[in-house]
């Protein structure tokens, strides 16, 4: 019995190791091939992201960065042709709108051939400081010649706006909410205008004037007037928030799902069998991320979240045609 026990356990260990070795060999050299995989056939189904049309609120606020600047100087034009006979003010003086600045004496020919004196008084067109005024008694001026310039006391805020953002401001607002960096509490900036230089505007024989690029090459500019009771200084940075309207409880869709961003557009509706069809929709307000659907879709319908063929979104960056409001302003793809 002792001899049998001596050999039983070693034999059992040999059998165990043999079984393990056989199993490993099968796994390594003879894997299961129950289903052959065709490399030409995708092994997974790719499904385009979809969006179920629902209701929401579109707050169409356009945020821009701008700069505070002093209002431009206003020229004081001569109202007649002739010689300066009297000067009533000097450079650096404050003048009120309509105040007399100087007196011109000219001559006109009468029908009978005689000559008569023609007196004309030049007045200040606006209130402000005579920042430039060097007229002297005896100096000659023609009608329209500038005799000086007046620097008005007002300030304005201006900033550039991407042209595609103008679609969000079809109904042009007249004011903006302005926050001055390190300045007073936010205030309402009035008389808001949006201008785009016309071809050739600001060009002259000596080059461009007025600080523009000329030739209509610069983009649209937003400008609004700082209230007189708000203390600001030229050169301060500012943020402008222009309210382009709000639409509550309306059908909305991501801008990425729509070809077009203003007026009309196309979406791709997912049909019950999984296929898609292109459908025209009418559009309302958009906030740079979502757009209001005013016609062409019903609540609960499913559309592709991204227009077929459009580039995939990048982290933190807008798609082409999309604008995203950030703390540093509006970024458009």
Automatic annotation (TrEMBL):
InterPro entries linked to this entry: MdtA-like_C
Region (Disordered): 197-220
All copies of domain Multidrug resistance protein MdtA-like C-terminal permuted SH3, residue ranges: 249-303
Ranges of compositional bias, category Gly residues: 201-218
Top-rank lineage group of the source organism: Bacteria
Pfam families: RND-MFP_C (PF25967)
Protein name in UniProt: Multidrug resistance protein MdtA-like C-terminal permuted SH3 domain-containing protein
Organism: Antiquaquibacter soli
Lineage: Bacteria, Bacillati, Actinomycetota, Actinomycetes, Micrococcales
């Amino acid at each position: 019995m002792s001899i049998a026990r001596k050999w039983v356990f070693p034999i059992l260990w040999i059998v165990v190791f043999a079984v393990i070795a056989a199993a490993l060999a099968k796994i390594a050299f003879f894997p299961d091939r129950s289903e052959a995989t065709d490399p030409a056939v995708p092994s997974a189904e790719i499904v385009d992201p979809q969006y179920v049309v629902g209701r929401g609120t579109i707050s169409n606020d356009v945020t821009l960065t701008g700069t505070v600047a002093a209002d431009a100087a206003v020229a004081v034009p001569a109202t007649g042709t002739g010689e300066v006979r009297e000067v009533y003010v000097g450079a650096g003086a404050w003048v009120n709108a309509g105040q007399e600045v100087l007196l011109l004496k000219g001559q006109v020919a009468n029908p009978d051939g005689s000559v008569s004196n023609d007196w004309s008084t030049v007045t200040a067109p606006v209130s402000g400081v005579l920042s430039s005024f060097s007229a002297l008694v005896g100096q000659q001026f023609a009608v329209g010649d500038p005799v000086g310039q007046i620097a008005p006391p007002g300030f304005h805020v201006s900033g550039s706006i991407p042209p595609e953002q103008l679609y969000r401001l079809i109904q042009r607002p007249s004011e903006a909410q302005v926050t001055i960096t390190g300045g007073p509490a936010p205030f309402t900036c009035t008389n808001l205008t949006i201008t785009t230089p016309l071809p050739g505007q600001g060009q002259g024989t000596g080059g461009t004037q007025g600080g523009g690029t000329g030739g209509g090459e610069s983009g649209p500019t937003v400008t609004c007037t700082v209230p007189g009771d708000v203390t600001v200084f030229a050169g301060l940075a500012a943020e402008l928030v222009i309210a382009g309207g709000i639409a509550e409880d309306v059908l909305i869709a991501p801008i990425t799902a729509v070809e077009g961003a203003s007026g009309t557009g196309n979406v791709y509706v997912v049909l019950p069998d999984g296929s898609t069809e292109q459908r025209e929709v009418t559009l309302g307000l958009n906030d740079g991320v979502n757009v209001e659907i005013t016609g062409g879709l019903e609540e609960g319908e499913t559309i592709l979240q991204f227009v077929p063929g459009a580039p995939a979104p990048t982290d933190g960056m807008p798609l082409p045609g999309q604008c995203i409001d950030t703390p540093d302003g509006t970024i458009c793809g």
